[in-house]
C-alpha cells in the first residue's frame, strides 16, 4: 500500500517536472485581497481557471515544435498558432501577470520615472485610471485591458479580446504590458455580478505599484 502511494507521488513529481509550463504559487492567500476581491473568486480563478490554462497549454504543445518554446516565442508566432496553443498560452501569461500586479500591501509606490512618464502621457495617475476604465468598459465580452510600453518606449493603453495580449505579433497595438486587468466575468461575477465598473474601482485599491514600476524599468532599459 505504502509502495503504491510512493509510486503515485513519484509519478506525479515526474509529470510536474516534465511539464514545460508551470503555474507559480499565488503570491498571497486567497483571502488576502478581501474586501476588494473575495476569497472564493480568487480560489476559483487561480485553482481552476488559471490552472486549467496551464494544463491545457501543456496538453496542446505536447509532442509539437511548440513544446520547447517560451511564452514570448509562442506570442511572436501568434498568427500561426493553433487556437488551443494561442488561447491557453495567453491565459497562462495574462493570469501570471495579473497576480503579480495585485497586492494586499498598502504602501507600494509608483517610481519617480513611471510617474513622470504617466504624467507626460496621460496627465497623471487619476487620468490614467479614467482612461483605462473607459477602455475596459468598452471591451465587449471577455478580454483584458492593458497599460503597455510600445516599441517606441511610449506608454499606451489598449484592450484585447479573449486571452490575447500586446505581446502577440498579430494584435493591433503591440508592446510589453506592465499592467493588465482581467475583464472576464469569472474575475468578478460572484461579488460584483455584471457591475464591471465596481470591480475596476476595487482593483485600483490593490495594485502593486512597485511591481508595475519594476516592469516599466525593465522595458525602458532594454
Ligand atoms: Fe481570468
CATH topology: minor pseudopilin epsh fold
CATH class: Alpha Beta
- Helix count from the secondary structure assignment: 9
Instruction: Report the portion of residues in β strands.
Output: 5-15%
Give the strand line-up of the largest sheet. 2-1-3
Determine the mean pLDDT.
93
Determine the structural class based on helices, strands and strand pairing: mainly alpha
The major beta sheet can be summarized as: 3 strands, antiparallel
Rg measurement, Å = 18 Å
Instruction: Calculate the terminal CA-CA distance, rounded to whole Å.
Output: 55 Å
Q: How many strand elements?
A: 3
Structural commentary:
- It is built from nine helices and three strands.
- By secondary structure, the chain is mainly alpha-helical.
- It has a single domain (about 40-220), classed as Iron/manganese superoxide dismutase, C-terminal domain (minor pseudopilin epsh fold), CATH 3.55.40.20.
- It has a three-stranded antiparallel beta sheet with strand order 2-1-3.
- The termini are far apart.
- The relative contact order is 0.14.
- Fe (ii) ion (FE2) binds near residues 49, 186 and 187.
- Fe (ii) ion binds near residues 95, 182 and 187.
- This is Superoxide dismutase.
- InterPro entries: Mn/Fe_SOD (IPR001189), Mn/Fe_SOD_BS (IPR019833), Mn/Fe_SOD_C (IPR019832), Mn/Fe_SOD_N (IPR019831), Mn/Fe_SOD_N_sf (IPR036324), SOD_C_sf (IPR036314).
- Belongs to the iron/manganese superoxide dismutase family.
